Amino acid sequence: MNIGLKVPMAEELVWANVMRPRIPLVYLDLHVVIRMARALRGDTKVSAEYLQLYRAALRAKLERRAMFPLSGEHLWEIAQITDPKQRGNIADMLETLSDYGYLAGRTLIAELEIEAGMAKILGEDISDRSVALVRSTFGHAFGMVGGLKIVNQNGGDTSDAVRAQMSDAEFDSLMARMNYEMERRMLRGPSDEDLKQLQADPAFQPEVAAEGQRSRLAWEQDTERVLNKDPKWRRGRLRDVIAAREFVHEWIEMYTRMRIERQKAGLPSFDPPDDELRRFMGAMPHTQVAVSVKTRYHKDPQHRWTVNDIVDIDAVSVAYAYCEAVFPDKAVRHALLSSKELQPIGTYVPRRPGELAEWLDSLPTLAAPGLLVPHPVNRSSSAAG
Fold this sequence. Notes:
Layout: E1 18-21, E2 26-28, H1 30-40, H2 49-62, H3 72-79, H4 84-98, E3 102-103, H5 106-122, E4 131-132, E5 134-135, H6 159-164, H7 168-188, H8 192-199, H9 206-229, H10 232-235, H11 238-264, H12 274-282, H13 285-299, H14 307-322, E6 325-327, H15 330-337, H16 353-361, E7 372-374, H17 379-382
Helix pairs in contact: 1-2, 1-4, 2-16, 3-14, 5-11, 9-14, 11-13, 13-14
């Protein structure tokens, strides 16, 4: 495979085969949630617009005019907060707005985008293999399928045995309480006492996830080194360089695996010519968002990459592509708004909390807000702005 360096964003994007609610999805960066929580507690150091935003968001959620999904990146960022009380305050806010609904994680979205791209080129119908864009479990953010099970000390599933000892209504009530408690604890993170118990368990290895993020950070730092060595790329086809490196580093193994799986399943092989492959790569919506933001960051030779950059870009790449509005931090917002190639996606990116509050208040009430439809929805009819 020779993709070269020219990987422009395609004029026609190929969306992941997902089903989503008709009402707008609104993604809030954690810093916004923290400020809303502080404003709600009466912190006068926080702009009053954050209290205005919270009230508008709560109205929109209760009236089923908008949804505020969580992401795996929310969990990552909350886990970095050492104060259990602060984590609890943030989690209370997120629970109230989200009802523990999570966006599909970037790995699942990437797989679905690759599958959709292959199907489009090969003329295959995959409409019967759609996946929910939002599900009420943190596992959805990490590609986990299925729900909570009751297991014995050996890890065996004893759900049926427990069900046999009570009525269906009692069992359903038990599972609902257990699910709620699991989601609640996952969002809040461990208490100091729980953390001590976890640290005594050899299976508890949070450093594995941290190492994965550091590895991806090292890749961006290596890109920075390459650009510093040959600065002409920053003045020319920088986005092409970032796009090629992004696909090779992040998704080439998945792409190769999926091609092999097709062959093993007896499906037509996917081996497009180079020009078609470049269009295929350029049509992956969430990847193109990540490429645009990374391009803006790499354009500045003074930018110093951090793990937080990686987490923010992971979150916004899915949210900007698949939500109707995102409220990121200042750096990501600037990168999104200055990326003209992303404007056709049409996602609303407010500059101030008051702007988002007004946008939320202007959303219409739909007759069937819970109806699931393929993404993308007609944003002009479901969202303001």
